[in-house]
Amino acid sequence: MLKRICVLFLLNSFILSSVLPGSAYAQALTLPAPGTMLGTSEAYTPLIFKGLQIQPQNPMLFDFIVDTGDTGLTAGKDDAAIRTESQKLIKYFLASLTLPEKDQWVNLSPSDRVR
Question: In this predicted model, what pLDDT tens digit does every residue of 38-83 receive, in sequence order?
Fold first, then answer.
């Protein structure tokens, strides 16, 4: 009996939700009028690698030189956040090293043939 009551309740809920309008509200966008000139946004420099140092004793040990850019992160105070963001960049860099050389090709000369 309890099972039938639950099934009827769910069935009625589904039917009523498809028949009655929902209570969804669209938010107004604050877009400029068409034809209005938009200014450029401020320049932003994310956290980036500035350099890479390879240890002569162990060539597989890298020291990455990181610039925090305009992130507002400062060494000493935000070390954990800098380390987290740097780890993402390190993973991207190491992933790029695993790509086969035959798949890495860029045509910088317009006179060269297209591959």
Answer: 888 888 888 898 988 998 899 888 889 988 888 888 888 888 888 8
Query: How much is the pLDDT for 25?
Result: 67
The domain locations on the chain are: 48-100
Cβ atoms of 59 and 35 within 8 Å: the answer is no
SS3 41: coil
Total-model pTM: 0.50
Where are any strands of DSSP class E within the chain?
Answer: 48-54, 62-67
The answer to whether 47 touches 69, Cβ cutoff 8 Å, is yes
Residue 89 has, within 13 A of its CA and on its CB side, a CA count of 19
Beta bridge partners of 62: 54
Paired tokens of 42: 């401020």
